[in-house]
Every structure is written in structure tokens, then in C-alpha cells.
Amino acid sequence: MRTLDLFYVLCVSLICLNLSLSPVYAFYGRRQLRFNSEGRFKILQVSDMHYGNGKDKNCANVSPAEFPYCSDLNTTTFLQRTIAFENPDLIVFSGDNVYGICETTDAAKTMNMAFAPAIESGIPWVAILGNHDQESDMTRETLMKYIVTLPNTLSQVNPIDAWKYQIDGFGNYNLQIEGPFGSPLFFKSLLNLYLLDGGDYTKLGGFSYNYDWVKTSQQNWYEHTSKWLEFEYKRWPFPQNTTAPGLVYLHIPVPEFSLFNKSTEMTGVRQEKTCSPPINSGFFTKLVERGEVKGVFSGHDHINDFCGELNGVNLCYAGGAGYHGYGKVGWARRARVVEAQLEKTKYGRWGAVDTIKTWKRLDDQNHSLIDTQLLWSKNTTAEANFGFSCGSLLPRH
After folding, report:
1. Among the listed ranges 26-35, 114-123, 275-284, 305-314, which one has the minimum average pLDDT value?
2. Alpha helix positions (H), the chain
3. CATH number of the domain bearing residue 150
4. Predicted confidence (pLDDT) at residue 208 exceeds the cutoff of 50
5. Label partner for 325 (CA 20 to 30 A): which of 58, 104, 213, 241?
6. Alpha-carbon distance 114 to 10, whole Å?
């Protein structure tokens, strides 16, 4: 056995003995997400399904020719088609999954229908809440407590250490995407996902019918989790020099989304104003300070689907996927795909994340793929840091 291979085996053995020391690993007793054998991890984001009662609910903003036969089932068919074609490693439902107000009196039944394509696919999936989900017969808390019981979901009501921060909302959690089998980074999270409950409507006087924001308690949890993951990534064995990239998913866009108005500043389109909170809670500033998160992915504004970069962070809309929620005649419903690709090291194994790309998949006749773009690139020489140099393995004289 080569010296490097022996070193790798010994390190993996030691990692297995010490996993219990990490509170991050303690969060998970279920299926762990990891990059595939080709060094890729693909996420399908589905936003604003606004699911109602299935075939009994008509569509909004479709052509007169489509209207007589269009219903929630068109949303189901679009998801089935997209899941089958993209074959993602994870599906993220980013809020307004069901249309509660005046639409359904059985939110659990509606959620079963809305999430059915993901459940039937057998692919891991997660969900967060938007501002409309709780407007039926379930609160935000009971909604999340029901979602986590559904098959194949990795959703969480809140992190296991939420009590430390008295965290606001329901549906704040972190997912870690670990290295592929055979990689020295098999037990390290190479891509970190943060899912947040952005709330529904503000309860402050003078802000009637305005949208909620990411609270200080949620930001404190994010910062603590981010710093711990950085420590894990940089510690022995196979310590890395940088931080692993992160992605954030939340329903209501942060106020900084409103800064993009020119076509030259974005990939995609803006067709309505950004409906963000009336108060800027500083969450975007926290992301910039940490320097880890490369993309924030939101829904809420159905006919915006652009990505724009600000201070090293990409702010991206998914575009509306649901036919029962508002849309625009002649503008196809859509979903966003994000794909991370690992670098190949000089040792022939998969290393850290090299690039993060995104595109959108449309529910048109051709199931079109549009607006492929590079969100982030490591842009460095592909050389893994195993915590030693080849020279250090030679006998000393």
C-alpha cells in the first residue's frame, strides 16, 4: 500500500472515532447528502406552487385556450417532468407551497398533493414556508411538524440547538453536502445549505400588510453554525485552507434584491417590484461579513427570475412554478437548478468545490433550459491540501 493511501485509511478511521465530538454531525440521524461519483451535486428549487385542491382549482394568468383544462395538476405534471429530466440530488421547496387563504380547509391533504412528485421520486427533498402556507387550518409550527413526517424529507422544524438562540420561526436548519465515496474529504461538508423561515407578515404597528424579515436570533444561529462548519472544514485531518461555499434558501427576498433594475446587472428578468421587508435586518450584511455564502435563492415575486451579484453574493429568484398562483400570460412557469462541481486534485481524487452554476427549466413545449450562468468559481489551481507535503513523508537525515 502506498504511503499516501495508508495515511488516508488511518485518517478516515480517526474521523469515524471522533464524529460524536461535532455538534453539527449530531444533528443528523438520517440519510446524509453527498456529491456523486462524478463530483457533482444538483439542487432543484421549486417555489410558489400555491397548491389548492388539485384538479378542482383553475389556473391564474394563462391564455384563454389553456384555461378550460388548466389546474393544479399542471403544476404536478411540470414537477414530475422536471424531476425526471434533471434527476437532482436534492429538491428544495422554497415557500408558498400551498395556497391557504380561501382555497383549502385541509392543509395536510393539500401538502400531500403538492409534494407528491418529490415523494414519489425517492429523491431527498426539503421545504421551508412562505407567507401564504399557514393561512388555512394549520399554524407555521404545525405545518413544519407535519412536513417532517413525510417520506424522504430531510426537513427540520428547527435545529437541535435552537434553544440556545431562542430562534424565531419554524423551518430554520442546515444541510451539509459531504465529499463522494473514495474522496479524502468524504467526511467533510464541501457545500453548506442554510434554509430559513423568513416569516409571513410583520406584527409591528405602522407596517400593516408588509412582509417579515430574518430575525437577529436566526442570524445568530447562522453565524454560529457557519463558524463551526468552517472550523470543521479547516481542522485535521485533511485541513482545508479556505471555507466551504454556502447557499441560502428563504422565501421572502432580502431588501438588497431591489437594487437590481438594469438588464446589464442581471441574468434573467425583472417584471415586478421586489416585495421585501420594510426593515432591513442586516442579514445580507452578515453574509458578506462571513464571506461563505455564494448565493441567496428566493421566491415570492413570481414573475422575477433574475440573478444579480452584489459584494460577492448572488441574489437569485426562482420564478413561479405553480399554476394556481399568479403568473404572466405567455411567460412559462419555471424552476431553478443549481449545480456544484468538485475539482480534481493532482492525486486523481475529488477535492473541494470548483464551480457553482445555475439555470432555469421552463414548462413550455420544449421544456426549455435557459440562462445558464456561472455563479461562483474557486478559480485556483486544483491542488488538495492534505495537511502535509510530499517531502514531509521522506525520512529525515
Report:
1. 26-35
2. 3-18, 72-86, 107-121, 140-147, 216-234, 283-290
3. 3.60.21.10
4. yes
5. 213
6. 46
Rounded to whole angstroms, what are the CA distances from 161 to 150, 173, 218, 221? Answer: 23, 10, 12, 9
- For residue 9, is it within any domain? no
Give 158-196 pLDDT, tens digit per residue. Answer: 998 878 889 999 999 999 999 999 899 999 999 999 999
Buried b (16+ CB within 10 A) or exposed e, 60-95: bbbeeeeeeebbbbbbbebbeebbeebebbbbbbbb
**64: its cell numbers:** 384563454
Domain extent for 325: 31-393
Record the cell numbers describing residue 130, joined without a space. Answer: 412562505
Contact status, residue 189 vs residue 178, Cβ threshold 8 Å:
yes
Q: Is residue 22 part of a domain?
A: no
CA angle, residues 57, 61, 63, in degrees to nearest 5: 100
Residue 341's identity, in one-letter code, is Q
Domain count, the chain: 1
Buried b (16+ CB within 10 A) or exposed e, 252-282: bbbbbbeebeeeeebbbebeeebebbeeebe
- Whether 338 is in a domain gets the answer yes
Query: Do the beta carbons of residue 321 and residue 297 sit within 8 Å?
Result: no
Report the candidate in 7, 317, 292, 340 with the shortest Cα–Cα distance to residue 174.
292
Measure Cα distances from 68 to 55, 57, 64 in Å.
11, 11, 8
> Has residue 15 been placed in a domain?
no
Cell of 297: 435563492
Q: Are strands 313-317 and 307-310 parallel, antiparallel or unpaired?
A: antiparallel
What confidence score (pLDDT) does residue 207 get?
65
